[in-house]
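Bumping with the actual sequence this time:
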Amino acid sequence: MRSAVKREVWLQAQTGHLETWQGFASLGKRSSPERAARWKSVIAEVEARGAIRDGEVVLDIGCGLDSVLDFMPRVHGVTLDSLMAKLKPLGLSPEIDHAAGVFEVMPFRSESFDRCFLMNVLDHVRDPEIGLAEIARVLRRGGVLVLSVDTYSGRRYWEKRARKWWDRKRGARTKHPWVFSVSDVEAALRRTGFEPGPPAHSPASKARRTLLTARKL
């Protein structure tokens, strides 16, 4: 996998994410029934691969204002977001602990969490593999990573990669600096200390969004 994208590319992506969350807040999407149904379907799919135990310590990375933890009342939830200072005025769940930081250098002790959610985040970051290695560090042995990301195959995959390369070269703003196939993600997980389970479509999302669960070795 390529090295980290340039800081200015990532900062442009961050600007786009903040605009997304500002719109989310202004439209009142936190209380929408569609949001609740989507997250409940994701949790059901995850639990079909292994039960979420009461009292688990669970980290949700890069979730902004839309955390799956709002629908997991029997766990101890923590969110991590690089935009945390700007998200607070928009309204964060009072039932969850919130931390500021980037997932490539997380402000948590090793082996602090039982489970981590990384939902629609991996293609937005500066360095996917360094971040996945950080997740492996903060998960306990046998801990579970739940990951969703848009994936592509065949001609579409190569067209998207070429377009992202050109966008970066000409300095165009993009919220998605990275393009992945399913095999790209599986290989990155294995290189960073995980064993991925079989991929599936992420429930209640666009057709290209893949859901994987991976266990820390």
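The tokens above came from a reply further down the thread. The longest helix spans residues 7-26.
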